[in-house]
Design goal:
The chain is α/β, with parallel strands linked by helices. Helix content is 46%, strand content 16%. The strands form three sheets. The protein has a seven-stranded mixed β-sheet with strand order 8-7-10-11-12-9-13, with helices on one face. Strands 1-6-5-4 form a four-stranded antiparallel β-sheet, covered by helices on one side. A hairpin with a 2-residue loop joins β7 (192-197) and β8. Residues 453-482 are annotated as: Disordered. Pfam families: AAA (PF00004), AAA_assoc (PF14363), AAA_lid_At3g28540 (PF25568).
Length: 482
């Protein structure tokens, strides 16, 4: 009876051949389903579903969050660049979920820019991590209440995420923001002109139209400047190998109106470098000078104009004696020292920035301290001379759009025999749109200048003859008394 029951029970189990047949059928069905899935479900949708499922199953009942703050008031000496990158990055992330946004179109940008206002949030997903962005305002100290509204521009960003992703957000996500913002702003860079007041740099758009093609300068000198700039840009590894800071110094010297400022603008436009205009009169101490120089960003041109007007840049012996004898009531205020200026240009402090150019301008090179002029501080000295015939040809092409004229030969002769600046000739060319009339104005101007020069030379000869005559008379009197 028991053996019968056992045999009956074994007959209830399927045979091995049936199991193999069932397995083969099931495997075939899975293969068909998988192929259909890959054909019907796009890769992006698959990635989205996997991300959402991972987020769903990774969530805990009581998650813990960390917060990073990105603001513009960095405690160190350098400026926080991440906040600018964050603004550009978020402008591409704002969608219809954000009911109130700040919008605007700025010069030099092709597209309208959008930005968050206080109270609005953006949820960004990076490698399956949900990161929440929120804009918060800084405390407004304006008691007048003019800026006391929700659109007040000063503020900072808070990014919040689960604490288990802290390392990934810090090392990968923030780097992702910098890279993405750089891509978004390519081709839309607007050069900036920075000026310093009350210990801070403030900027406006720099839109000077000067270019090397438009400069009234001899071709060979222009080419040497361009070649020097190109060589500088390509020598990052060279400067590193020889142990020098990656910077270059230029001294532009010559009479007023010879185009020093236009050359600086042409350099900035050629290199796509921002310009920092540093007025030494606003520097009150060595520490103030160091901070001003350290706040200057890379890929920039620092301009110190009319360096000869600052006594600290003169010969040190003269500077010292003049300051000791000064009875000015403000002489007690300690200004920066020449040694501090030299240290910022070519000393230890100069190594705190790279890919920077420093340009000094002066009308009187001879009064500057020799320590400023040596290579390593002012590497290239550029003499901005009076206008030459070649320079005038460029002016005529720019202003009148002509390459040749029957008056050019006479004008060239007068330019060689007089001393006129490109700025003064440009002013004459502006007097008429007609080429004949404009060049007649230039010709009359040059003739007048030549007459004035001849008159001055005659007066000098007469004065010299008068002095010599007086010396002879004095010598005769002495001989008679003897």
């Amino acid at each position: 009876m028991q053996s019968f029951s056992f045999l009956e029970s074994t007959r209830m189990f399927p045979s091995t051949s049936s199991l193999l047949s069932l397995y083969a059928s099931f495997s075939t069905s899975l293969m068909l389903l998988r192929n259909a899935y890959h054909e019907l479900v796009p890769k992006k949708l698959e990635s989205f579903l996997v991300t959402k499922i991972c987020i769903l199953f990774s969530r805990r009942k009581s998650p813990s969050f960390d917060t990073f703050i990105i603001d513009d008031s960095w405690d160190g000496l350098d400026r926080n660049k991440l906040i600018d990158a964050a603004r550009f990055y978020l402008s591409s992330k704002i969608d219809r979920k954000n009911k109130v946004i700040r919008v605007g179109k700025f010069r030099g940008q092709e597209n309208v820019t959008a930005a968050l206002v206080e109270g609005e949030k953006i949820v960004d997903v990076f490698d399956g991590i949900e990161i929440t962005w929120q804009f918060a305002k800084e405390e407004n100290n304006d008691r007048s209440g003019k800026n006391n509204d929700r659109f007040y521009n000063k503020g900072y960003f808070e990014i919040t995420f689960e604490d288990q992703h802290r390392e990934k957000v810090f090392h990968e996500y923030l780097k992702h923001i910098l890279i993405a913002s750089k891509v978004l702003t390519q081709g839309e860079k607007v050069l900036k002109l920075f000026t310093r007041s009350r210990g801070c740099w403030n900027c406006i758009d720099f839109r000077h139209p000067s270019t090397f093609d438009a400069l009234a300068m001899d071709h060979d000198l222009k080419k040497s400047i361009i070649d020097d700039l190109n060589r500088f840009l390509s020598r990052k590894e060279f400067y590193k190998r020889i142990g020098k800071a990656w910077k270059r110094g230029y001294l532009l010297y010559g009479p007023p109106g010879t185009g020093k400022s236009s050359l600086i603008a042409a350099m900035a436009n050629y290199l796509k470098f921002d310009v920092y205009d540093l007025e030494l009169a606003n520097i009150h101490s060595d520490a103030d000078l160091r901070k001003a120089m350290l706040d200057i960003d890379r890929k920039s041109i620092t301009v110190i104009e009319d360096i000869d007007c600052n006594t600290e840049a003169h010969a040190r012996s003269k500077s010292k004696s003049s300051s000791d004898d000064s009875d000015d009531e403000t002489s007690f205020v300690k200004q920066f020292s020449l040694s501090a200026l030299l240290n910022c240009i070519d000393g230890l402090w100069s190594s705190c920035g790279e890919e920077r150019i420093i340009v000094f301008t002066t009308n009187h090179k001879e009064v500057l301290d020799p320590a400023l002029l040596r290579p390593g501080r002012m590497d290239m000295h550029i003499h901005m001379s009076y206008c030459t015939p070649q320079g005038f040809r460029i002016l005529a092409s720019n202003y009148l759009e002509i390459k040749d004229h029957f008056l050019f030969e006479e004008i060239d002769g007068l330019i060689r025999s007089t001393e006129v600046t490109p700025a003064s000739l440009a002013e004459e060319l502006l007097k008429s749109d007609d080429a004949d009339l404009a060049l007649e104005e230039v010709l009359n101007f040059l003739k007048l200048k030549k007459m004035e020069k001849h008159k001055v030379e005659e007066e000098k000869k007469m004065e010299k003859g008068k002095v010599e005559e007086e010396k002879k008379m004095e010598k005769g009197k002495v001989e008679k008394t003897e």
